[in-house]
Specification:
The complex is a heterodimer of chains A (about 110) and B (about 110). In chain A, about 0% of the residues lie in helices and about 55% in strands. Chain A has strands at about 5, 10-15, 20-25, 30-40, 45-50, 55, 60-65, 70-75, 85-90, 95-100, 105-109. Chain B has about 110 residues and is mostly beta strands. In chain B, strand 7 and strand 8 (about 75-80) form a beta hairpin. Classes of the chains: A mainly beta (about 110), B mainly beta (about 110). Chains A and B meet through strand 4, strand 5, strand 9 and strand 10 of A and strand 4, strand 5 and strand 10 of B.
Amino acid sequence: RKEVEQDPGPFNVPEGATVAFNCTYSNSASQSFFWYRQDCRKEPKLLMSVYSSGNEDGRFTAQLNRASQYISLLIRDSKLSDSATYLCVVNQGNNDMRFGAGTRLTVKP
Amino acid sequence: EPEVTQTPSHQVTQMGQEVILRCVPISNHLYFYWYRQILGQKVEFLVSFYNNEISEKSEIFDDQFSVERPDGSNFTLKIRSTKLEDSAMYFCASSGDLGEQFFGPGTRLTVL
């Protein structure tokens, strides 16, 4: 079983749509969780941390379910500039950081 | 805004040669990381570093790899004897206590 699994997509959505990405992780001792976005041939950029209580940053909402070992990211009112690959990142402990393969999103006019 | 920098942006080397990839983390960060990303594949964790020693390393980080923080600002990754399959983008990252990592722009390593 992969350490961090994501649906690779691609997700093709129109502007203004709401889209949700899921991520599961295998190591139950994992301590912290993050969403990053990566544009083509660029470095990953932090989108948001994921907290147990769930957290929101503008159009973005992240959720964590420790019991199910599941993380989600919801993007509301998609913009063209949201087109990117979204990476789920899990700290398995002691800063052993594992990335999912990413979910590709394309937002179309 | 502080940022992580990496040099060189592109390194071409012959198989069997040693390469050193350099990174300058954000100045008040205490945790440092190296990752690689083979073209078209996912980002792979290599190593994390804290308090002048390795915290954790992955199965990829074998004896061919080493890291060093030679002074107060630089963080380096050395590959002793490069192989064709080492060709990839290598990203350095640093973080503070919250674990939120900031990545450098990467060094593209091409092994011929």
